[in-house]
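Objective 1b of the project was to move from sequence-level analysis to a structural picture of ligand recognition. The entry below was assembled by the postdoctoral researcher (A.K.) and checked by the PI before modelling. It contains the amino acid sequence of the target and the SMILES of the bound compound, S-adenosylmethionine.
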Amino acid sequence: MVSLIKQLPFQRIYFSTMNPNNARALSSTAKAMVTKDWSAAQYLKFEDERTLPVRDLLSRVPLQAPKRVVDLGCGPGNSTEVLAARYPSAEIVGMDSSPDMIKKAELRLPNVSFSVDDLTTYSPQPSTDLFFSNAVLHWLKKDERIRVIKRLIETQSPGGTFAFQVPDNMMEPSHVLMREVAATGPWASTLSDSDRDDFQSPQEIYNHLKPISSEVNIFRTEYHHSLEDHQAIVEWVKGTGLRPYVDPLSPQDKKAFLREYLKSLENAYPKTVDGRVLLRYPRLFVVAVKK
Ligand SMILES: C[S@@+](CC[C@H](N)C(=O)[O-])C[C@H]1O[C@@H](n2cnc3c(N)ncnc32)[C@H](O)[C@@H]1O
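Corresponding predicted holo structure:
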């Protein structure tokens, strides 16, 4: 399989229906690369699978009774709900740059305070005990991620915790193939800067965070999700990783792209004994406790 890892900066954020103050807060990079909003409905098609790493990450957070918890990039509120269940006495806050996601989160958890905000400019109340971010930071440009994490940790008191999880799937067939299809079809020039930045290595993360942390725990888990068929892989990534490739295309090109992509997945993922397919999905987890 040909590897097409292009390491171009990438961030796409929707803001046309955002309130003007929040829209102004978006970085200039984000404004320059606007695409469609996230779809909460598409994302939630695989809610159970997507919420597993939330539980796994939270199980490694050492805080017993935090007073204030912020879910950074809370999406439709699935991760926020798990936080609220573990810390019923805490003040829980959720933020996300997607108006559609925040709308869903507010309906789901009416007692939690949610805001449409961009992580690169987000300023939290001081002394937040736990910043929690599941499947979000990889959407920031590579050089922004560590800056955002450090800036937020600086607002915490000693013992405050920053916990995050990001997919580690850039070399999985699901993602290699979407880059290949993007680079070889008639849409290649339109999609030439659609690739996501690779994430920092565990060693890089550790080296950045250890000087300000009493401990930095890093672990990696490889999930194997049994999905109904190859189309289900398409549906899964349509809610996340495929967005930068199909959002810029015309309806006709989008259809052709998805057809090509599905065909390539059928060759890469053999059917299992029960006629389903196994989607391997590695994820990287980090829990840093402030010094
Ligand atoms: C894959 S979803 C994760 C949702 C939820 N945290 C979960 O555990 O399932 C990624 C979320 O990150 C949000 N996001 C991406 N870039 C962001 C940014 N710069 N600031 C705030 N949220 C962002 C998206 O809007 C989306 O809701």
